[in-house]
Amino acid sequence: MAEGKRELIMDIAEEILIKANYKSMTTLQIAKIGKISEATLYKYFKGKKYIFLSVLERFYDNIYNNFFEGVNSGNTISKNFYFIGENLYNMLKNENMSYKIVYKAYSEIDDEKIKEVLKRIFNEILSGIREVINWGIEKHEIDIKEIDAEILAMSMWGVIDSILRKHIVDDECDMESDYFLNLGAIFFNLLIK
């Protein structure tokens, strides 16, 4: 039951954060919506910042697993990029916009704990993309320098980040699936030129 209340608190906070900013969210508001006392909320979290951090961590775990689903060292680099594009499309098509919370977290970047979580999200996704590129180098599918692999990984993450931002401002995923599937092909073609 304890894990259920903790998840309930995080679910409510996520819904609030999708629509409002961190500063306007209160523990009292979360408690009222969850029909629990504020004292009960504090049994699970030290305060709203820790709820926010838990929501960010949960979001990261979900997005990372979905983003790299099907991606592995046994695939060709082209197939892995295809999976990344397909996974991105499916995430945007099915997502409830919870990734807006990550962008809102940047307004709290001066808080060291929030900055630490954002840094981990950024670096681990970038590292995952870089790993896909390195698999291609190891299998001699592509021939690029390590520095070029780093730049390419950052470029790919930058494009993906732009797509996520476009989705937020458009409030929907209005792009065809081919757009995302071609994303992988475009990056692969850049690698083999």
From TrEMBL:
<feature type="domain" description="HTH tetR-type">
    <location>
        <begin position="3"/>
        <end position="63"/>
    </location>
</feature>
<feature type="DNA-binding region" description="H-T-H motif">
    <location>
        <begin position="26"/>
        <end position="45"/>
    </location>
</feature>
<dbReference type="InterPro" id="IPR001647">
    <property type="entry name" value="HTH_TetR"/>
</dbReference>
<dbReference type="InterPro" id="IPR036271">
    <property type="entry name" value="Tet_transcr_reg_TetR-rel_C_sf"/>
</dbReference>
<dbReference type="GO" id="GO:0003677">
    <property type="term" value="F:DNA binding"/>
</dbReference>
<dbReference type="InterPro" id="IPR050624">
    <property type="entry name" value="HTH-type_Tx_Regulator"/>
</dbReference>
<protein>
    <recommendedName>
        <fullName>HTH tetR-type domain-containing protein</fullName>
    </recommendedName>
</protein>
<keyword id="KW-0238">DNA-binding</keyword>
<dbReference type="InterPro" id="IPR009057">
    <property type="entry name" value="Homeodomain-like_sf"/>
</dbReference>
<dbReference type="Pfam" id="PF00440">
    <property type="entry name" value="TetR_N"/>
</dbReference>
